[in-house]
């Protein structure tokens, strides 16, 4: 049986969709999330097969959430929206289906049939790769959305992935891979990414093979493996 995560900022909409899914059958509800940031954590934790995803949510919308998910954990997607103008974009983002609110049992049943057909890896639509524009980070009990232009560099450690800015550093649930492939940050080390627009100078060395000094004064290691590519990207 497929496992699904419901993501919608309206409690009533989540409850209604859950009830309909239970009536139609064939899908187990792995959880519910009231916003995209909690959904990001839940997808990584639960690894559901399906995401019933509301398009319009405050702060981070459904399309932005997809940009934050690593391809390795990205479920099949059914967009749920109250506005049919989002339907075209939903399919551009390779959704299996979209549901217009209020969702009916009959229409949901058709979506479940589509999900069953697309469940096999060979039948899955191409995975979406929308660009990432903001990085959700933890700031105490709040969620701070850091614009990519403000990111100085990113570092990874056993404690997690940290986005470093001129104002400080913040823990994020996004992976280095997502930040590199969809955020345009450049790999300079196995555990470090850098924003080329924030590079002030490159200092040669032996171990690491070089060090980047950013405009904010941070020192970022460059391994020999990535040095040639980095210099090429910088036009050096």
Describe this structure as you would to a colleague:
With 236 residues, the protein is α/β, with parallel strands linked by helices. The chain is 29% helix and 34% strand. It has 2 domains: 2-123, Response regulator (Rossmann fold, 3-Layer(aba) Sandwich), CATH 3.40.50.2300; 136-233, LytTr DNA-binding domain (OB fold (Dihydrolipoamide Acetyltransferase, E2P)), CATH 2.40.50.1020. The protein has helices at 11-24, 36-46, 62-68, 87-92, 105-118, 176-181, 224-233; strands at 2-7, 27-33, 50-54, 76-81, 97-100, 134-139, 142-147, 151-157, 160-165, 168-172, 186-189, 192-194, 199-204, 210-214, 219-222. A hairpin with a 5-residue loop joins strand 13 (199-204) and strand 14. The longest helix has 14 residues, at 11-24. It is elongated, with a radius of gyration of 20 Å. The protein starts with a strand and ends with a helix. The model has no long low-confidence stretch (mean pLDDT 89).
